[in-house]
Write the structure tokens for this entry.
Amino acid sequence: MKAALYGLVLAVLVGWGQAAAKIAVSPVLHEEARVQAGQRFAVTCHHRGEEPLEVEASLALFDQDAWGKAVFLDDQDSVARAEQLLSVHPRRFWLEPGAKEVVQVEVVQDSFEHLYAVLFLKPVQSSLQTRLAVLFLLSTGSGEAALDVASWAHRGEALTLQVENSGGSHGLWAGELLLFDGDGRLGDTMQVRSGVVLPGRSRGLEVSLPSWVEKVEIRPLQFGGGP
Amino acid sequence: MARNRAVLTYLTLVLMLLAASTAQAAAVITMQVEILAGFSIACEEDNLAFGTLSPEQTVQKELELTVWSNVPWDLYAAFSGTGELPGVLEVQDHRGVWLDVGRSSKVVLWGQPETGRDGSALTIPVRFTSSYSDAPGTYEFQIEFTVVPSL
């Protein structure tokens, strides 16, 4: 009886009785060097659902965690910083089924060396809350990435690498693994890419190796460059 | 006479070959298109009811989502709401680890490959654990899923 009094009804995780929203966006990543104030980037939002839908656009910044995944910075200061440097138009708009809207993101101030911002496009009347995140990797200068393998470890059938970017812009590291067997013979080679590493950040990479590999050598193929 | 006929035949053959090659060249049209990186997400379910719970009881449900993307992508989950989330809301990532999404956005799936035309159908386990801190009543809250291009 007492348990019943303490009963807690968790009724709804998502909204009731609203049509499923289905929007598509493209492109989902804008990467541009030597950006200037007034420069615009277009993001197309397409409604693939069956009911009219309102979409909200908002800005924030992003960083990167130790494994290279984007970390959204949507606190008050970060949003204010993004809003100070970029503008979005329109902020809210209605889309009929099958209709498209082009959202313009404009560089208002180019007083930054590099800016890693995110544009969220979110259906306002969605049955489930979903967002699509468009990433902006913008830089005003011609700073270059400086990527290197800071450390690596070979344990059993796994190789873990830590790629570090000490340069002034984002970039990716590419390298070749030389795989040697127990007799010291080169048995195979394997190409690996780090994915984007933001300046001042490092990201881990895990590579699965064949069981016969006893020794690994790493040969960098490329430094710098974008994704 | 015979020589003239041979020359005429030769010239006719050359002309026919030229005409054939011209016709073939004229039929080839170079087309160009740029396909942009794009993605989309959908969930057909309107709601997910956890039902009636006693304090410190855990209930698990599954959410069905579909993602379409022509580039590698990640999926994030977060509690979405202005108020305080009752209890603990967790989402299971693709390693099987339960992530508390009540405090901050968590990466549920990462480094997912391009989905192709049909999209990638996802089953996301979600669980809720009530506590004695939650007053009896009916609670409604939302969880938000974000698709992000993999860096």
